[in-house]
Write a structure and sequence with these properties.
This protein has eight helices and no strands. It is mainly α. It has one domain. It is globular.
Length: about 200
């Protein structure tokens, strides 16, 4: 299909990667629990937008550029880690009645999730390594093949995010009845964000 080798396996691989816990999933869950379905969908679009930028950076060879300039790559790692840790600390130290770390306006959810996604430079390297696995050299159509891959990932991410948002919203309605549980989950999310930031810096 448009130069993609084993399209079914490509789709399955993307679904598996989407289900792996990470900052993107955490952003979807936190956004939905704070702002409802509309905010969750805004966060989903933020993940998609960030991923599209990273994918096309990979296609353009940015991964090779980062590999040639390790200092720039590590600077991006530290920047991404610092941002995740900053969000995590704010959530961890939040008190009952404090304004939410993630704003209630869907526009803020979108922007914040875009940055969470973009500030992970290893994602560029991941796409650079992942795409060639499913490119058929004999039927490759250049940019059109990569565009089909990017579109597939965007569609799958949207439907995955929609399912996550609806499930989270259903559970969040029950959690809101118990402020202590809500505060505990907020702090747990903060711990995970800090952990993701540390992992980003320490991973090789």
């Amino acid at each position: 299909m448009l130069g993609i080798a084993d399209y079914g396996a490509f789709v399955l691989a993307i679904l598996v990667f989407l289900a792996i816990p990470g900052p993107g999933n955490l952003a979807l869950i936190t956004s939905t629990s704070k702002g409802g379905i509309r905010a969750g969908l805004a966060a989903t679009l933020g993940v998609i937008a960030g991923d599209q930028v990273l994918m096309w950076m990979a296609v353009a060879g940015v991964a090779a550029l980062l590999a040639a300039y390790p200092a720039a790559f590590h600077a991006l790692q530290w920047l991404g880690a610092a941002y995740l840790a900053w969000l995590g600390c704010k959530m961890l130290l939040a008190k009952p009645g404090d304004a939410p770390v993630l704003k209630m306006q869907p526009r803020q959810f979108f922007r914040q999730t875009v940055w969470i996604t973009l500030l992970n430079p290893k994602a560029v390297v991941f796409y650079m390594a992942f795409f060639p696995l499913f490119v058929d050299p004999k039927r490759h159509l250049g940019v059109l093949t990569f565009a089909a891959m990017a579109l597939t990932i965007a569609v799958l991410t949207f439907f995955y995010g929609l399912v996550m948002v609806l499930l989270t919203h259903h559970l969040a309605e029950r959690m809101r009845a118990n402020p202590r549980v809500s505060l505990g989950l907020n702090r747990l999310a903060g711990v995970f964000l800090i952990g993701f930031g540390i992992k980003l810096v320490l991973s090789k």
